[in-house]
Amino acid sequence: MNNAMNILGQKMNLFAASANVLVLPVFAGEANLAESVAERLPESLRKTALRLMKAHDFSAKPNEMMTIDVHDAAHHHVVIVGLGSAADATLETAREMIGAVVACARRLGARSIAVEIPVSDEGDVADVAEAMVVAAQLADYAFDTYKEKNGAKRMKEMTLVIKEGRDVLRVRRAVERGCAIAGGVAVARDLVNMPAQVMTPSALAEAAERIVKEAGKNFSLKVLDRAECEALGMGSYVAVGNGSDEPLKFLHLTYMPERSTRKRLAVIGKGVTFDSGGLSLKPGDGMMTMKCDMAGAAAVLGFFTVLGQLQPRCEVHGIVAAVENMPSGKAIRPGDVVKASNGKTIEILNTDAEGRLTLADALTYAKKLEPTAMVDLATLTGACVVALGEEITGLMSNNNDLAQAVLDSAEDAGEKMWRMPLEKRYRSLIESEIADLRNIPTSRYGGSLTAGLFLEEFVDGLPWVHLDIAGPAFAEKPMGSYLGKGGTGHGVRTLVELVERM
Question: What CATH number corresponds to the domain at position 69?
């Protein structure tokens, strides 16, 4: 992760830390809150704190802040931040708190912070520490590659203050894991945020090659070109790339654990590096963020970055059918029929429904690896954003156990997902009069569900989850306190939790 802040876990008194900003998190609900907070401060700050808390009616609501100027040689500010009720506290409480703290530190011009790890009676100090680390790194992220002064506002260091000596080792391990996860998310965010003129299918393949090389001996990469994909019968995927001058690249990343295992996870990411809509051309304002149409692929590559550091016990395959969807005299036309590698024919009625065409062959390829579970991630439908908004992923699955495992993983990771049905009665809406399937339904309603049903045609009953990340993959406005605008790396954190459950 470029320019990532250095994060430490230390057993110490908060006010002995040398950071620019010292952060004291406070739970609400105590009978004598002001006195309780004051007792945790150095005597020199107590009167000031009591006066400010009274003046501002400080009640420790979530992310409520009070700043005390110190101006001594070591520190500049003490920030008291509210967490809300301890009974209602979750890991997301800690994430949102630290995101707000990083933003506050930036406003104050600070480059280093020290913060006590807040733990409720039901919480675990290592889990809270990891959540704080991930959120702090995400909050501090900035895509400033093309800025003249890049990295100018990044935080340099954060110290997590540990209260109990027995927790030091666990917290330091949590810091390492949190930094690894945040690094993987940053990789995904960088890939999405790069302009499409740079992040072509070939560039995506080069990024995969770097990740595999850095990850070590347990990793490998296979890259297939157009001729090789045609030889495998990938007519659906190949057709999408017909209109582009950029060569398509089919990526197969593999992680093999040291010990043999029966568990095999396949993760498939939609890799359309730019989506103009093809001949079914999008309007101009609909194209402005279409460099993000490879966010599923970016999540897969970011996930593999984390695998290299965490070395899980499950075998993992990452599949990306990278391509650019452009209009030209060679582009597929509405009314054309293509054949996928499982033998199914597809009538193309809208060339802007191209993601499912690439995933059809990617899923078929992944299925041949005989995985015990398959998960695809795709910025697939605007209909899912209409249904669930910009911050929630739509989940569809043919397997209740796998669906629940992904939902539980997302909950722990702090990524929002909601299960949607694969309604069998809607299957008729994707039946074609001249082919096996059509790539858009006959109804304008339920578009995310019919897209899921289309993909299900290519998994042959293997346990499979489809994640429609069209909403949360790219933030057009900040999502909470720790995810800013642009690519979010959505899905990486969930995949990490899932692979460790397998």
Answer: 3.40.220.10
For 211-227, the pLDDT digits (tens) are: 999 998 899 999 999 99
Told to judge if 264 belongs to the known catalytic residues of this protein, a careful annotator would answer no
In a domain, 78, yes or no: yes
Whether 112 and 202 share a structural domain: no
What is the SS3 assignment for 448? helix
pLDDT in the model for residue 164: 83
Tell me the C-alpha distance between 166 and 475, whole Å. Answer: 40
Q: Which of 95, 172, 291, 356 is catalytic?
A: 356
Residue 8 CB contacts under 8 Å (≥ 6 apart), including other chains:
157, 158, 159, 160, 175
Q: 10 Å Cβ neighbour count for 79? A: 21
Residue 337: give the domain boundaries: 194-501
User: Are the C-beta atoms of 255 and 304 separated by less than 8 Å?
Assistant: yes
Nearest to 294 by CA among 210, 209, 192: 192
The H or E element spanning position 393 is: strand 393-397
Q: Are residues 444 and 486 in the same domain?
A: yes
Active-site residue 282, yes or no? Answer: yes
Are residues 324 and 385 located together in one domain of the fold? Answer: yes
**Pick from 159, 185, 211: which residue ends a domain?**
185
Residues 160 and 248 in one domain: no
Residue pair 325/351 in contact by the 8 Å Cβ criterion = yes
Quote the pTM value: 0.94
Two tokens, residue 450:
């019919």
The whole-number pLDDT of residue 166 equals 87
| Regions in the chain scoring below 70 on pLDDT | 1-3, 71-75, 150-152
**Quick one: 325 exposed, middle or buried, by C-beta within 10 A (0-12, 13-18, 19+)?**
buried
Q: How does DSSP assign 397-409, residue by residue?
A: ES-HHHHHHHHHH
255: in domain: yes
Q: From the candidates 106, 154, 163, 282, give the one annotated as an active-site residue.
A: 282
Of the three residues 147, 163, 185, the one that is the final residue of a domain is: 185
For residues 62 and 60, give the distance between their C-alpha atoms in angstroms, rounded to a whole number.
6
